[in-house]
């Protein structure tokens, strides 16, 4: 298994986005593999989504639940997905994380509806 695929197999991914002034902001997320991409799901109006909209350049690497890095990070490019692709990401997360994933995605759907969250795909730079 190559290093990129291993990131998708891991439990958490540290996604680093960049503020306007270049300051890095790292966030741990649940991750799933989707073909050649890594995907995660998040709240549509989160700051990381706003930063990705402005600058799709990110860095990704393995981490633990608290966001402590567990290996090297690598440059990548993120893109925000449309509603049908975001729904596919939700299903991938639910499948990978089992009952906890199902409860988390389902609870989010109840609170925010399907338009309150968005899928993000990450490709190697």
Automatic annotation (TrEMBL):
Tell me which SUPFAM superfamilies the record gives. FMN-binding split barrel
Among Gene3D superfamilies, the record links this protein to: Electron Transport, Fmn-binding Protein, Chain A (2.30.110.10)
List each copy of the Pyridoxamine 5'-phosphate oxidase N-terminal domain by range.
11-97
Q: Which InterPro entries match?
A: F420H2_bilvrd_red/Heme_oxyg, PPOX_F420-dep_Rv2061_put, Pyridox_Oxase_N, Split_barrel_FMN-bd
Query: What Pfam families does its record include?
Result: PNPOx_N (PF01243)
Q: Which UniProt keywords apply?
A: Oxidoreductase
Q: What PANTHER family does this protein's entry cite?
A: HEME OXYGENASE HI_0854-RELATED, PYRIDOXAMINE 5'-PHOSPHATE OXIDASE FAMILY PROTEIN
The name of this protein is Pyridoxamine 5'-phosphate oxidase N-terminal domain-containing protein
